[in-house]
Amino acid sequence: MELCQLGRSGLYVSRFALGTMTFGMKDWGCDEETSIALVHRYLDAGGNFLDTADVYGSSEDIVGRALKGRRHRVVVATKAGLPVGRGPHDKGTGRLHLRRACENSLRRLQTDYLDLYQVHFDDPTTPIAETLDTLDDLVREGKVRYIGASNFQAYRLMKALATSDARGKERFVSLQGQYNLIVRTLEREHLPLLEEEGLGFIAWSPLAAGMLTGKISAGAEPEGTRLGQREVELDALVRNDRGFAIAAAVVKAATELGCTPAQLSLAWQSTRPVTATIIGARTMAQLEDNLAALTIAIPEEILAELDRLTGLPDEYPGAFLRTMHSWLRR
């Protein structure tokens, strides 16, 4: 599996990261034995990048057990910030919670350090400087190698980077965000920002919570998929008329190409400015299907049609500025 440099950092990660949110998750996840088998198969396939979070139930514990004797081969990424309890310091990115969360993740993962420690979301209740100071301390103490952001607005991410630079602190080396054929909004502001500032991009939900697997269509209940477990607000981003139309188009294109819709959707990620795409699996068959996407080359005509169907509509100020910039080049 191809290794890619994560932004301008010295960290190299595989093109597909293995997401572990399903590990030990009740109802729609997989048990520990299956989870460990998935990790070992992924590593055998050449993958080196595991993504988890403290809020994913028993995921960190299972990952820790799965990596016994293999820790040195793996880039371990975890996240903190979402609520893990009801107390005032059981959530957010303040100093007290982040330090406690980091120690707990190290214990559960049975490791002395985290390769990539990510804040799970932008916490508006905590000053960015406090969050960055805390993360910088964790790096200097050797508990964390690199830091990353997840689910940030573009202007807030830029503010965080500028704050790090001004204060001489560790800066984020990556952004993790939702990106797929249905949700491409990060292309407007985030992807140009990441390129300019030298951050890697880690895409989550590349199959839109199952919408792009070919198993879900308009009027069909998403049983046994992540979509059936999502909050209504998140559901609405993909389970709508536009989402169903794109899902149908992906099925049609995959049939023409001779692959599964999931494979086509994952192969599409490799044509975009994505450093690593997080794949998730509940069964070995799903993992094998996902890994097979690495061998698929999408013909230009299919790529062009997918882009026509899924590209973002023009908006202000983007469309206006593109016109102005074209005038400058005349």
Explain this structure.
The chain is an alpha/beta fold and 330 residues long. Helix content is 41%, strand content 14%. Strand 7 (144-150), helix 5 and strand 8 (174-178) form a beta-alpha-beta unit. InterPro entries: AKR, AKR_Detox_Biosynth, NAD(P)_OxRdtase_dom_sf, NADP_OxRdtase_dom. Residues 17-309 form the NADP-dependent oxidoreductase domain.
Secondary structure elements and pairings:
Blueprint lengths: L2 E3 L6 E3 L1 E4 L12 H13 L4 E3 L7 H8 L8 E6 L14 H15 L4 E6 L8 H13 L3 E7 L3 H14 L6 E5 L11 H8 L2 E5 L27 H7 L2 H17 L3 H9 L6 E4 L4 H8 L8 H11 L7 H11 L2
Parallel strand pairs: 3-4, 3-10, 4-5, 5-6, 6-7, 7-8, 8-9, 9-10
Antiparallel strand pairs: 1-2
Helix pairs in contact: 1-2, 2-3, 3-4, 8-9, 8-11
Short description:
41% of the residues lie in helices and 14% in strands. The protein is of the alpha/beta class and 330 residues long. The chain has a single domain (3-328), classed as TIM Barrel.
Number of helices: 12
Radius of gyration: 20 Å
Mean pLDDT: 94
Low-confidence stretches: none
CA distance, first residue to last residue:
43 Å
How is the CATH topology named?
TIM Barrel
CATH superfamily: NADP-dependent oxidoreductase domain
Overall spatial form: globular
CATH class: Alpha Beta
The total count of strands amounts to 10
SSE run: EEEHEHEHEHEHEHEHHHEHHH
Largest sheet: 8 strands, parallel, barrel
Strand fraction equals: 5-15%
CATH architecture: Alpha-Beta Barrel
Strand order of the largest sheet: 3-4-5-6-7-8-9-10
| Helix/strand structural class | alpha/beta
Please tell me the total number of domains.
1
Q: Helicity level, as a percent range?
A: 40-55%
